[in-house]
Amino acid sequence: MNKYRKLLSNTVILGFGTFGSKLLVFCMVRFYTSCLNTEQYGIADVITQTANLLIPLLSVGIAEAVFRFALDRETDKKAVFSTGFFTILAGGAVFGLLTPLLELVPFFRGYSLLVFSYTLFSCLHTLCMQFIRAEGKMKLFAVHGILSTALTILLNLLFLLVFQWGVVGYVLSVVLSDVFCTVSLFLSQKLYRLVSFRSLRSRFPRAMLKFSIPLIPTTVFWWMTNVADRYMVTWMIGSDADGLYAVAYKIPTLLILLSGIFIEAWQFSAISEKGDQEHAVFFGNVFNSFQALMFIAGAVLTALAKIAVQVMAAEEYYPAWQYVPMLSVATIFSSLVTFMGSVYLVEKKSVLSFLTSMTGALLNLVLNLLLIPTFLAVNGAAIATFFSYFVVFIIRALNAQKYISFPMHPVKLTLNTAIVLVQAYWMITESQGWIFVQIGAVLLVFGLNLHAILAGVGRILDRKKRTAEGEPSPEEAGVDIPSPPEI
Questions:
Q1: Do 355 and 341 contact (CB within 8 A), yes or no?
Q2: What is the C-alpha separation between 243 and 67, in angstroms, rounded?
Q3: Are 220 and 53 in contact (CB under 8 A)?
Q4: Range list of H helices, 99-137
Q5: What is the distance between the alpha carbons of residues 340 and 344, in angstroms, rounded to a whole number?
Q6: Are 301 and 26 a contacting pair, CB within 8 Å?
Q7: How far apart are CA 396 and CA 470, in angstroms?
Q8: 453: pLDDT confidence band, cut at 50, 70 and 90?
Q9: Please, where are the H alpha helices in 135-237?
Q10: Which residues have a Cβ under 8 Å from the Cβ of 348 and sit 6 or more positions away?
Q11: Coil, strand or helix: which one is 21?
Q12: What's the rounded Cα separation, in Å, for the pair 485 and 487?
């Protein structure tokens, strides 16, 4: 199977599982907003996001190292998994001793044990999932994603609708789902056979920690870029405003879903194909199609902001639509930043991931302080998020060329960016003719990126056809076929 078909196959498999699970979560937002008022939803959101901040600290970012090192051809799988497992247990022991300190913070009083449980079992679940993904068990990875989400939703229905446990029930459902799925993978995949103290004497623990430790501040900085604005909105405006902002964030989750499905498959292909003579060409072709899909999806989502909020949230959350446009544009660049990060993953340059993410986080913090107190209010946080991702993308795009030089199509990127920003402005301000501007923007972005999408589809279909007929592709035959001009 050629690399384009393999990438497509893995994307489809992961898409089936990931889209199914994320779609279930997306559809549940209306249920959550019916069971929790804006203040409760804001509290639950801050608790889970705080736990997400603690995850890289407890795990030392080891799950990413497990995935990256398990993909190397000459590797000791037992040493790799054991390093990840014992690192998380050690982090859990330290965090367990410090958990009572959370009770000193009024906001977390009564929730400290939940935060600890959420963090520990999320780390263990992620470890197991990353390991089976590295082994190429994409179908199992996808099915388990759906299972985890379905179990979370069932527990949510029980805890919120039947028992009416509010914030506690919302968080506890995720914890119990992670516990069940971790135990299930451990037993069904016999991962317990890979746990060995002796394996810690190999060279892998040191190499893996050298790779993963810079990912701790990296993840923290990304958390700051993604979530710190919610704390600042709560602090400067109030929990009600944060509740609306949190719901608005759920809409661009569709873009994160699209990019996340692909990125999981892409990371596997990007690392597996390392050393191939056409690696840079592969990167360039895939990036061109990927950015095309992201801009089209972002433009459509911005145009449907009002409808999306009406459908997925209770009536009191309707004002959240006005924050969706800028968050959609921000998410486009978040996805492009993640793609550029795959270069660092392939080359094991985790320090560069740290430095660029630090730049984005600090910029985001400063802009939030400057913009939220102004007339922009909550939209100031959305603009700060966009600008932070945009700057990090530019930095990574320039820096990545030193390691894998592939075409970036700067003119097309510039035009796409200008169109979606104008579209977002017209949507937020509801200026005269805003409906026609939305339709026109979607059509413009679609027309601008149609060639890149068709080119990607053509590569897959052409290679499928030639493979079926037993004919070599032009590249395999040594024929140099010029590519059509692209923007």
A1: no
A2: 35
A3: yes
A4: 112-134
A5: 7
A6: no
A7: 40
A8: confident
A9: 138-156, 166-188, 204-212, 215-236
A10: 68, 211
A11: helix
A12: 7
